[in-house]
Amino acid sequence: MISYGKVDAGYSLEGKTAVITGGAAGIGFATAEFFAKKGVNLVIADLNPEADAIAKKLGAKNAGVPGDIRDRAYRQKVIDTAARSFGGADILVNSAGIVALEKAEVLSESDWEKTISINLTAGFMMAQAFGAWLIENGRPGCIVNMASQAGVIALDRHAAYCASKGGVISMTQVLALEWGKYGIRVNAVSPTVVLTELGHKAWDGPAGDAFKKEIPAGRFAEPDEIAAVIGFLCSDAAAMITGHNLLVDGGYTAK
Fold it and tell me: How confident is the model at residue 9 (pLDDT cuts 50, 70, 90)?
């Protein structure tokens, strides 16, 4: 059962430990920065070979584990690193992901499979490994899966990405249903375009300006806005929120 411990208006995360996949760049890194400011111990899992150095820049005791989240042995290594370094972890943020932009009629099988394997399959397997560790050790915890507005609406040239993120949302709901009795909360966050380095590269210019006109808020999201939402969902202030997909889209999907 998920217990009630009174609302913490300060959203304290002090002393918790978080595993963040894709934590060396983009939304993952913004989340790592946010968590570090909140006193969270970090284990950054990322393809970047400098993952450990990046983690330690945010705190000397933090750890980074370079590798491919699709690899089962690597996922276990990440869990083992958290256990060895901090006695375990309280939070998993599944932020690793890719996008393949292509018309549906010419999207290659390899791009489809790679997108599904990273965004959905590997994300589930990472959550599975983390959840199993929590259950085995009798610990509550929180998982936040990075989905997208593309998981609830159709976007042009996003067939594989939309399919993967829709799957992430459904997977999130099932894990919340099954694991609530263990005190494990599982939620998804679905942003609009986020102005990471890749977001700027893809959307700076006329196409981005046109897209922003379709968003009631009139702009795209900043990485630290998404990080703040993730931080809230991982705090005790959100103790009654599980199985939810939180849209951070400036009202785009409200149309």
Answer: low
pTM for the full model?
0.95
* Residue range of the domain that includes 55: 17-247
**Best CA proximity match to 114, nearest among 102, 105, 130:** 102
Just list the catalytic residues. Answer: 161
Of 202 and 48, the one with more pLDDT: 48
Q: What are the angstrom distances between the C-alpha of 158 and each of 4, 35, 155, 165, 210?
A: 40, 31, 6, 10, 18
Question: Angle at Cα 22 formed by Cα 25 and Cα 176, nearest 5°?
Answer: 135
| CA dist 200 → 168, 208, 245 (Å) | 24, 9, 25
Domain count, the chain: 1
Residue 254: closest CA among 222, 215, 226? 215
Rounded CA separation 148/248 (Å)? 9
Which CATH number fits the domain that encloses residue 171? 3.40.50.720
Instruction: Tell me whether residue 2 is in a domain.
Output: no
- What tens digit of pLDDT does each residue of 167-225 get? 999 999 999 999 999 999 999 999 999 999 989 988 999 999 999 999 999 999 999 99
Distance CA 51, CA 35 (A): 16
